[in-house]
Amino acid sequence: MMNRLHLLVWLLVIGLACASNQKLTEPPPRRTYNREAMRHMINGTIEDLIGEPKNALVEYHQAAEIDSSSSGIYLALAENYYFLEEYNSSIRMARKALLRDAQNIQALELLAASYEKLRQFQNAARAYEQMIKLDPEDVEILYSLTSIQIIIKEFDKAVTTYRQLVRSGLEDPEYRLRIGHLFFQNRAFSQAGVVYQDVSKSNPDFEAAYLALAALSKAQKDTTGAIRIYQAALEKQAHFEEVKAELRILLERSKRFDEAILVFKKLVERDSTNLGDKLQVGQYHFLKGDTLAAVGCFKSVIAAHPQSERGYLALGAVQRAQRDSAGAMQTYEAAIAINPMFLDSRRRLRDLYAAQGRWDAAIALYDPLKENDSTYVGAHLEIANLLMQKGDTLQAISLCEELEKSNGDDWRVPVTLGRLLMVNDQPAAAHPRFDRALQLRNDLSLIWVLRGVNLIQLDSLEAAKQNFLSARPLFAQDPEVNYYLGIISTRLKQNSEAIAYLEKARELDANNLQTLLTLATLYDEAGEYGKSLALYQTLYQATPENPVILNNYAYHLAVTGQNLPQAREMVIEALALDPDNAAYWDTLGWVLFQMKDYEGARENILKSIELSADSAEVLEHLGDVYRQVGDPERAQKYYRQALDLDPSRRQVKVKLQQLDNGQGFTPEKP
What we know:
Elements: H1 2-13, H2 35-49, H3 53-66, H4 71-83, H5 87-100, H6 105-117, H7 121-134, H8 139-151, H9 155-167, H10 173-185, H11 189-202, H12 207-219, H13 223-236, H14 241-253, H15 257-270, H16 275-288, H17 291-304, H18 309-321, H19 325-338, H20 343-355, H21 359-364, H22 376-390, H23 393-407, H24 412-423, H25 427-440, H26 445-457, H27 461-471, H28 479-491, H29 495-508, H30 513-525, H31 529-542, H32 547-560, H33 564-577, H34 582-594, H35 598-611, H36 616-628, H37 632-645, H38 650-660
Helix pairs in contact: 1-2, 1-4, 2-3, 3-4, 4-5, 4-6, 5-6, 6-7, 7-8, 8-9, 10-11, 10-12, 11-12, 12-13, 13-14, 15-16, 16-17, 16-18, 17-18, 18-19, 19-20, 22-23, 22-24, 23-24, 24-25, 24-26, 25-26, 26-27, 26-28, 27-28, 28-29, 29-30, 30-31, 31-32, 32-33, 32-34, 33-34, 34-35, 35-36, 36-37, ...
């Protein structure tokens, strides 16, 4: 718009700015103009050019005071107000320009644009309609008018304007499709269909038109219609890959496998070189339950395309699904024999060997690649990982240390070596490896996470927290980063921070059981039992046989005094799964304590202490039992042992003081 303004101003300067935009059939009469008004216009134009629109407004207003008959002056004012986002003022000035020149299309354009900014779409539409009367072939104006008419629900008018737009020369199918999408978004489905059909007929090779038509059918719950549209599209162009993908989804969801097989068989008949379509036929046979046909199909693909790995992978996947490990091994072995660089087949064969404990066979798979330039480092690292799984961690470390000397600049080497050292309880030796890996590659969350966990192993909690805080801006959507920040904050007794981080981790990964468990524990400690109960219920529904969940849920119920018989059954089930877990015996004891079975509580808590005597909480529980049954000396003994382990337990100090004052004990309810 500014360019138009400058053109109009300078036309005015040289005396050519007429009061009308009509074409002239003869030279216009010479127009007189006010020199003082012209001076202000020139000054305003200069202010515009140097980026001072407010100063320009002052000059233009002074020009208007001197010469109120010029539409060009009011047009300049309207444009500057628009530029300054003062749309109501822009509308007033544009109207003044139109009073002096009713056919000033630039003033109408500013008027329509300002109405749009103020979301006065009815008024904008009327302005565009006036513009079309002046220039009925202007594609930009027609496009804007069509869009506005759709927004104000004048759908039939919009279709008429759209057709005028096409006649005026809008050929680009993308732009035409956008109009259809705007109809679609406003649920004007029949009008959207008119546009989509029009685009598909005039551009039969334009895949997006068929996708749009099918989307329209799906929006109206017409799955069969959408399938017909996709099939019709593929009859015209067999290479429409997005159409194929959408068609596959619909056919699979509706389990129309016979129909799917026919569709893709026809595609194969039309193009026998399309490997993807051939594989899809086999996949549908498998989904249908006809494994024999699927196997036959994949074998024929392998015979026709022996240099493509996809056929071997598909056949191997079916064999593995049928638990035919021997057959799958033969398939992957055949693939590797054809092409040693079929690395996915090699990895799947490795997994099968590993599942059978055939570590040497798995390792031997990578021996031929050790000297291959493209796989040198990867092959050695695969061997190292297999050695670790085999249990030969020292040999794996030795292999990586040698690799570090020759290929230490490959980030995978220090990462793998650091991980092996961590597994082998050498966290101090692992630390510089993760630092080195981070120097080489800081854009992988895996390295930051391993480095942070390593620092936790070293008990460098502040450094670990800083590591994850540095990683957080780089990996804003990584739940692990937030999870470990929560764990570290918990250990630093920064529980409110821990909850915030863990809630973020939960938002990013709602199904992570460890995150939910830790959050539930923190909410218990904070006394927010409603939140912790909801989490335990979610966890229990997800994995009702998980002993940790059973124990923690039971302990929550014991602490809150709710559903104690259910809590007892839960912890008994947890103990059946893990009978040597000291924490579970303590939970059972505390549940029985709440049920007033003090002898049962004493026996089970003593069992917990026999298994592990390093928990201040368990010792405190035993002290509570003895205090409740009237044995203050033993109660004092276990309270003092609890304080020796954790001097920060203030409630234990209070209990000791109460015993000194001869007070009994009643368990507190939350």
